[in-house]
Amino acid sequence: MQRQVALIKQSLFDQGYLDEQFIELEELQDDANPNFVEEVATLYFKDSARLISNIEQALERGSFDFNRLDNYMHQFKGSSTSIGASKVKTECTMFREYCRVGNAEGCLRTFKQLKKEHATLRKKLEQYFQASK
Amino acid sequence: MVCEMETDQTEEMDIEVLSSMWPEDVGTQADNNQFNVEKPAGDSDTLKEVDIAEKRTMADLKRLPELMNTTDQGTSQLTNLVKQWEYMQDHAVKLLREELKILTKQREEAEAKELKIIEEHNFESQEPENVPVLDDTSHLFRRFKHKKRDALIGSKRVEIDEEFDTVAYWKQKALSLEKMLEASTERERRLIEKLNESLKTMESHSAPVEELTQNLKRAEGFLHFILQNAPIVMGHQDKDLRYLFIYNKFPTLREQDILGKTDVEIFHGGGVKESEDFKREVLEKGKASKREITFETELFGSKTFLIYVEPVYNKAREKIGINYMGMEVTDQVRKREKMAKLREDNAVRKAMESELNKTIHITEETMRAKQMLATMSHEIRSPLSGVVGMAEILSTTKLDKEQRQLLTVMMSSGDLVLQLINDILDLSKVESGVMRLEATKFRPREVVKHVLQTAAASLKKDLTLEGNITDEVPIEVVGDVLRIRQILTNLISNAIKFTHEGKVGIKLKVISEPSFASGMELNADAEEQNGLTETETSVWIRCDVYDTGIGIPGKFKNLKKNKTQAKLLDLLLLPEHVEPNQKVRFSVKSEKALPCLFKKYMQASADHARKYGGTGLGLAICKQLVELMGGQLTVTSQVNAGSTFTFILPYKVATSDDHSDDQDFSDMVDHHQPEPDDTTEGYFQFKPLLGSIYSNGGPVIGNNNFLPHKVMLTSPLKLINGFVADPSNNTGQSETTQVENNGYIDETCSGPCPSKETESCSSSQASSEGGALEMESELTVSSRREDETTETSKQPKILLVEDNKINIMVAKSMMKQLGYTFDIANNGVEAINAIKDSSYDLVLMDVCMPVLDGLKATRLIRSYEESGKWDAAIEAGVDIKISENEQACVHSTNRLPIIAMTANTLAESSEECYANGMESFISKPVTLQKLKECLRQYLH
């Protein structure tokens, strides 16, 4: 069981979904805070779901308010960095890059990819937390 | 032989083609020449007679041959010709030799045959019967036989032998033999003739002079053919740059005009000297080179030549002159220049375009930012009003002293923020042209008094604040009092900020209509539209706000536009300028740098911005407001002696009897002293360490109309209570009565009607009086809190400013592990409020946040620290240069360590963190280790 958890975790790292910040979080977990990582992750997914829907709305509006998009993405990126969601973070960075140069098409594309990475990570982390219980 | 001649000619043709090339190719030619037999070179001297000069050519015939002999180029041409000649001679000799060989061979053959025939004859003579029919023998046989007979002519032996048969037969035979002999002789003769002929031809070929002349002619003809119409000038000049030879000279020049002369002697005008210098340069350097020179001569006008000049050496490798060749390229140059110009224009246009685009972009950006700012400010205002309002309501309930003090701080802070937001909204209103001016009746003296009161309340320096209003200034005028107050407050706080000792004051006087105001009726109309259309006369009042501060230098150092600065943070409306230690008197009209003061976000220098704080909006707002009201704001300054900001505004004079509907702060005066209240004197003093001392200028005695007015505000240290109320003294310089209080002065011991004042202050939220009160109280509270913090300093107080929930959660957990707790602010504004209301030992500040980002928040906090408005609230490092020695009551403001948390993106560079007053930074994501180190460093 323990081994399986370790394996899942290792694969998450190997595939680049997570980075060392996640370990940092795990180290914060102690007896006083036994589910800290999961709590943070849950909060992250809750928060990011909101952000995603915000961005989606903004994108659907057609007229691209890059400033606003950039602001959203900044938050998204901040959160992703904090939990060590490496791949999502990369997409966020890219998205912001596109915002900076005003590339709407690039934004849409990146956002799609971002959602994909986000969903994947969510699934994987859920698995992981499930397994570690 | 004919055929041979032909080959000869083709050879010649080849050679001619080769010889028309430049001498450099001689080597190659020689290599290819298989008949290049070494022979003594042809007599070069003969070449002297060759006439090279033709119609278009001029040559110094005496010098040129000499030149030809002494230079490599010259000799190479001759050598070439000689070689060519030699080659042809060789060839002819060779051909002749071959011919000779053939002939010899033939002869040998003939002889052989003859021998054979003789042998046959011998045989014949022995056996005559066997003689074959001679006719059957070949002609050749017979010929040889004849030949033989010729050779043996006179030998009777044959004839005798032949008598062997009949005589007739032999006769016949003899006859035929004779014929053959004749034929043979004839042949021989012809051969000899031919030999002679070819010898003659050879002789004719071997006349070298003629040959060479021909060649030369051909070569020159060829050159001439090519060069005839070419826009080319060629020449040779000796080492004094005198022409020895020129080809294709300018038509009108005669030989004597050119030969033996230099360019400078021949031509006059632009370019001549240059070309001469160029030639000389080539001569000196000994390296061939090209240059384009434009001549501007009387002779042929403006023409550009591409000139090629090469040095000429003699055989001893000494320079003896130059060859030069010029090609006229005027048209090409013109075209090229045109192209270059077009290209340049194009580039310029492109640059302008991009510049324009940039400007457009910036403008759009600015517009958006402004819009955002306005919206944002508006959004903040509503809830803030709620907070302040509630606080006010709370203040009306029964509170103990401490609670009241706290509440006052709260309200003053709220008011301050409200004020800031209003300013920002004002500015964007003014800028977008939607600002509307109010026209209300107000009393200038009141306004001055209240402004000074307010300023005095937060004064921490040993400064005298004074107001001086001349008699002519009407008691009441009509104008936008709020704006005027805003301007005055702004200017005064400026003055105080940059004045360390001496006095700061306001002077009002009536002036005649200034020249710039000719078109101001419009504004007057606008004011009329705003109501108050009673028949008033207009009056221009000049208001000087003067100080004895450090002054403004003539030149800004490192003038910097601070775009990154917070637009929101004009809280204090502090201006920025001033560079001390220059002693120049100047006025705004003559000084170009000064108007920059009034530009938005202008900072005198980064140093000053940091030292004195402020965002650069203050003066900009003032100027815009003044101009909006149809006035003018100017400044004069003397470094180390002080500055005077002057604004001139038109007002309408209100009739004195309808004052009852006055609003704002004039109403509070109306409350207690409805009639004779024009002059009021207030003396304000406070002692921050002891608590709030609030004294108000008391009742007001005065006359109805024009009064001298002096408001005296003295240093907090001396605790002076003074009254100046001398209606009889109209000079403007009143006596001051000073009352020293060495202790804590409560509200009760201040003015004669304190309760009313208190009331009015708490009810009028934006009034100056209220602000003043609150400021004082805040100081008190702060100082008190200082004590508190020292008591409870075991656990450091940390403020985390972060908008991201996840980050907060993580940070919280980390802090917990490290054994700290902290407060949380979600953005810069919250952070400022938190810092204002509480004392922290460390702030962890996210850089990029909504509402107000970390950089701006930090700047604001620093500016508070430096301007001292909240000084006592913070404890930590040491800073503050303003409060130097003259601040007798030392109230040190400490620097709060602010650590940035950056994502290390472009917008959040560490330099910017430092530049905005941050102590250090942690890059995100924050790790336990980083946090630990940071805390260890800044929390001892």
General description of the model:
The complex is a heterodimer of chains A (133) and B (940). Chain A is mainly α and 133 residues long. Chain A is built from six helices and no strands. Chain A is 83% helix and 0% strand. Chain A has a single domain (1-132), classed as HPT domain (Four Helix Bundle (Hemerythrin (Met), subunit A), Up-down Bundle). In chain B, helix 4 (72-126) packs across helix 5, helix 5 (139-151) packs across helix 7 and helix 23 packs parallel to helix 24. In chain B, the strands form five sheets. In chain B, strands 8, 9, 10, 11, 12, 14, 16, 17 and 18 form a nine-stranded mixed beta sheet that branches. Chain B has a seven-stranded antiparallel beta sheet with strand order 1-3-2-7-6-5-4, sandwiched between helices. Among the domains of chain B are: 92-112 and 183-229; 230-336, PAS domain (Beta-Lactamase, 2-Layer Sandwich), CATH 3.30.450.20; 437-515 and 537-555 and 592-655, Heat Shock Protein 90 (2-Layer Sandwich); 798-882 and 889-938, Response regulator (Rossmann fold, 3-Layer(aba) Sandwich), CATH 3.40.50.2300. In chain B, helix 24 (854-867) links the parallel strand 23 and strand 24. The model of chain B is unreliable at 1-55, 127-138, 152-159, 519-535, 556-593, 657-793 and 871-892 (pLDDT under 50). The interface between A and B is medium-sized, with 26 and 21 residues.
